[in-house]
């Protein structure tokens, strides 16, 4: 009887393992596929990863609520990359500006548009900043938040919201 219990337990374990692999997608879990070596060492190599991927062109949904590209009413630096707009209320992108340069850019740009900074809500802490501007025609406030990504770029998110 013990033999059958052990056999049953092993079969159940094998079945559970196969089920988990099927549910999780199996495969190599994103590990790179090794390429046989071209040199005499015989050590396989990992294929290179693409580093200069093309930016996505603007793509609008039927209701215009979500786009990839640079379609936004908010001013963007010339080097804005990976721009994602969600309606007219949110835009997110990366830039090579420093945190201070990013803050100066939006003070200048929104100042030219007649917006007023709520300086009591402006703060910087380490590798982040946050600013709020009033004066948008919708009556909502504009928040600008930046985070240093540590690779020479910062991520900036601009949101139009009731504050």
How would you portray this structure in words?
With 163 residues, this protein is α+β, with helices and mostly antiparallel strands. It folds into two domains: 1-48, no CATH class; 66-161, TATA-Binding Protein (2-Layer Sandwich), CATH 3.30.310. It is 23% helix and 26% strand. Strands 1, 2, 3, 4, 5, 6, 7 and 8 form an eight-stranded antiparallel sheet that branches. Strand 6 (128-134) and strand 7 (141-148) form a beta hairpin. The longest helix has 23 residues, at 2-24. The chain is elongated. Residues 50-63 have low confidence and may be disordered.
List the helices and strands and how they pair.
Layout: H1 2-24, E1 66-68, E2 81-86, E3 90-95, H2 99-112, E4 116-117, E5 123-125, E6 128-134, E7 141-148, E8 154-161
Antiparallel strand pairs: 1-2, 2-3, 3-8, 4-6, 5-6, 6-7, 7-8
Radius of gyration: 26 Å
Provide the structure class.
alpha+beta
Order of helix and strand elements from N to C terminus: HEEEHEEEEE
Sum up the overall morphology in one term: elongated
Question: Cα distance, first to last residue?
Answer: 71 Å
Quick synopsis:
The protein has 2 helices and 8 strands. The chain has helices spanning 2-24, 99-112, and strands at 66-68, 81-86, 90-95, 116-117, 123-125, 128-134, 141-148, 154-161.
Question: What distinguishing features does this structure have?
Answer:
TATA-Binding Protein; 23% helix; alpha+beta; 2 domains; elongated; 163 residues; eight-stranded antiparallel beta sheet; 8 strands; 2 helices
């Amino acid at each position: 009887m013990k033999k059958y219990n052990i056999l049953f337990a092993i079969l159940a374990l094998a079945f559970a393992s196969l089920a988990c692999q099927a549910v999780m997608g199996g495969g190599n879990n994103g590990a790179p596929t090794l390429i046989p070596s071209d040199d005499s060492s015989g050590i396989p190599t990992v294929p290179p990863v693409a580093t200069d991927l093309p930016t996505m062109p603007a793509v609008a949904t039927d209701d215009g609520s979500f786009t990839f590209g640079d379609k936004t009413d908010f001013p963007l630096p010339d080097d804005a990359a990976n721009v994602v707009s969600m309606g007219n209320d949110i835009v997110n992108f990366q830039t090579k500006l420093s945190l201070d340069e990013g803050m100066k850019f939006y003070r200048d740009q929104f100042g030219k548009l007649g917006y007023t900074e709520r300086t009591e809500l402006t703060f910087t802490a380490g590798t982040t900043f946050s600013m709020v501007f009033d004066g948008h025609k919708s009556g909502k406030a504009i928040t600008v938040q930046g985070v240093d990504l540590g690779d020479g770029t910062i991520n900036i998110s601009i949101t139009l919201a009731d504050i």
